[in-house]
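Box 3.1. Reading complex inputs
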Amino acid sequence: MTSHAERVELDPECPARGVREAAEKVKGGGEVVLEFGGVLRMDAAAAKALEELAGVAEGCEGRIVLRGVKIGIYRVLKQLRLERRVTIVCE
Amino acid sequence: MAQNHAELDRDRIEYLDGLVGQAGIAAAVFTQYTQEDVDRIVKAIVLAGLEQAQALAQLAIEETRLGLFEDKVIKNMVALEFVYDYVRDKPSVGVIREYPERGLAEVAEPVGVILSLTPVTNPTSTVLFKCIMAIKTRNAVVFAAHPKAWRCCQETVRIMYEAAVKHGAPEGVFGCVEAPTIPDNVYLMHHPEIRLIDATGGPGAVKAAYSSGKPALGVGAGNTPVYLEKTAQVDMAVVDIITSKTFDNGTICASEQTVVIDDEIYDVVLEKFAELGSHICSEQETATLGRVVINAETGAMQPMAVGQKALDIARFCGLRVAAETKLLIAPIAGVGREYPLSVEKLFPVLAVYRAKSTEEALRVCIDVNHAGGLGHTAVIFSRNEEIIGQFSEAINAGRIIVNSPGSIGALGGVYNDMVPTFSFGCGTGGGNSTTDNVNMYHYLNLKRVARRTQAHMWFRIPNQIYFNRNAVENLRQFASRSTVIVTNPQLEQMGHVELVRRAIPANTPIRVLSIPDAEPELRVVLEGVEALRMQEADQIIALGGGSVIDAAKLMKLMYLCPEADLEELAAPFLDIRKRVVRFPAGNGKTVRLIAIPTTSGTGSEVTPFAVLIDRARGRKVTLADYSLSPDVAIVDPQFVMSMPKRLTADTGIDCLTHALEAGVSIHASPYTDTNAMQAIRMAFQYLPVAYEKPMDEAARSMMHNAACIAAMAFSNASVGVNHALAHAVGARFGISHGRANGLMLPHVLAYNAAVPAKFMPSPNQRAYTAHKKYAMVADLLGLGGETIAEKVDKLVAATEELLERVEMPRSIREMGIGEEEFERAIPELVKYAFDDPSWRSNPRMPLVSELAELLRKAYRGRRVRETVGAMEGARV
Ligand SMILES: [Fe+2]
């Protein structure tokens, strides 16, 4: 993780909002760290937003880092094959 | 994106991918939901559906022009209420079933995205049913309805979806293809994100689903035979059949198609049908009906008739029927192409057949069943349980409905306790994978969590063992009407038989049966059985070495169970609890077997084993069963005082090998360990003394006990690879059993103490412990050493030294066997050893190459220990 990484704390009630915000931040090709620590469950909107975010990052050589991902959410990412498109950091 | 899409344009593909994509996200997200979440959502969609049951029925009628509004409402309500009643209290998330006594649990895993094909005949009810199952099991569904019913299906999906999402279901959980086509279905069936196809539809759709290479659930076509047997309650049967066959104008594929009626009640039944609003067709009307509603070329029903009212069909065919006619009854004289109405008719036309006998009735029912209805549904009305049984056996149907309506009966939950469904599995008869009423469990992957279980173990030995000098005197307590002493001529000459005779209560009729001093062959056993019969013996005293005692065990078995097939009873087995053959229980007669050993090695006086020579096949077989164990063992040293030196050494080393192998066996337990360790200790201490000072009665006595104690261990823990190899070498080169064991022993100890190339599956052991147990033996013998490796080495050295002291040959080479001859024999020896059951309890699973290597080591021989270093200081 570089020191220039942008950090986005996800709202447990609406994680999709933060993920969408991150899309703006990563557009320049930098790194965005999504703090999943408070998120207990990933909803469909967040999953869809994350798919889109991964697409944006891939288009501009940006990097998406997920922190504090709970095991249930990791399973969702794995099922959607999203885990390979982002970097998941274990605490 | 799927591959097979030549007939679809890009927009359509994008549309279909979108439906599957959002379902994929929903399915992934759904995995996080709890039981409470899904139960809450299921209840919400069921309530939403109930509210719309009539509206949806109306939509279905308008769009499909099939069936009856009233019945469609009922179907929707059954699909909601009865299915909900079935699923409501059933766990479907996490652990759904537990079998603690078996250490098993089943954990639910959703299947993912399901492609669901739904039929034109039951469009809305099938969708309602599948939505409930999907939510209950945390799956997402893409619905592809029948092209003639997609609008009503789409509306049903919309109602379910909105209620589900409103109550927390993931967005995208249900999707419905607009204006679906066959190319759409083909594309979706091959879509990589579709995990399961649930095809409730016509045979074409079902076949396509199964051909897609995806896991699929399908239903088969029906052609329900009904046997209306002469003992049936006719009034009930006729009402049930009319209710069922006219339900939704006969669109349920489980509904009755041909009723086979016993001659005795045929006229009464038809009168009843007529009385309740059925029109009984004349021969000519039946022919007309057959021509119009059945396609003469294909033999299948005409689609225009499906789901229509009886009156409309009659009108269409030009039949004059009463205005209240609800069912057309067409008498037929057979099944097949010549009788067009003998096929499936999803409309209120019912064929009837007059049967002259039960046999004929069953035959015609089978014919109907095979005329397109295999695996589906059959109905019988009867009060004769035997005939119901015959019918169930003869007919291939997933649902055999007894004394109730076929269609509503097959749906389950209304007339019986079958699982409520709208999808009938038809098994292999219908080209399906299941005969079940498809239900929520078919939407789950079940993960079996299997905890390690510990098999029951045992420690079984004769319940009376008498030992020490003059133990033979204990024979006095055993009353007998007639006793046979099985022994050999040599022991008779030595006066041992006389010693036994004197100890038997006076006036007991006694016969002495002298058999050759060799492993028994069948002839000897059978001659013994004859003697037992003639004597009407109730007591056998086996006085001798292992061979005599084994012979007596087999004589007792054959005497009590003359039908016993020794050849079959000797069949190999891995686990005595699961063995293929069962030893016979006997005929209630009891015969006491008392074993008095005259050698101190095999321990046959307490073991459940008996060796038999099969001369005809030139082989030796071992029978094993606790019923073979003697009832009483008398371990009296006076019978072994005159054992020759060499026999003392051979049998003593056999005893030591038994104890060392039982000690590290995968079946070893604290019970067998106790005996094994004690026997090892005694053998190390007393064998050299008994060998060097044959008249030392204390040493003889202790070795006699040691052999019996070691046998108690290996009777329950078995032996190991040492015995397997010794059996092979012994048989091939005529080397005595104990000697062959001694040749292998140091090499096998080192082998078992090393890290195995292959572990033996051993559920009763918690770790690989052979080396640790050898170290424990070394400690017990006071051999010294710090580490486990050092202790094992000391034990091997002590064993080698003991072998030296009792003048055991050091190598197979020393036995006068040439190296070339031995090398040539190795493949055969290895095969023999690998066939031997003994190694199956060895802690280390022997590879064939390892067996060969062990044999080569034994050929080259053990280390020669000139001094008595290892044994010095032994605290035994
Ligand atoms: Fe043995």
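In summary: Residues 866-876 of chain B have pLDDT under 50 and may be disordered.
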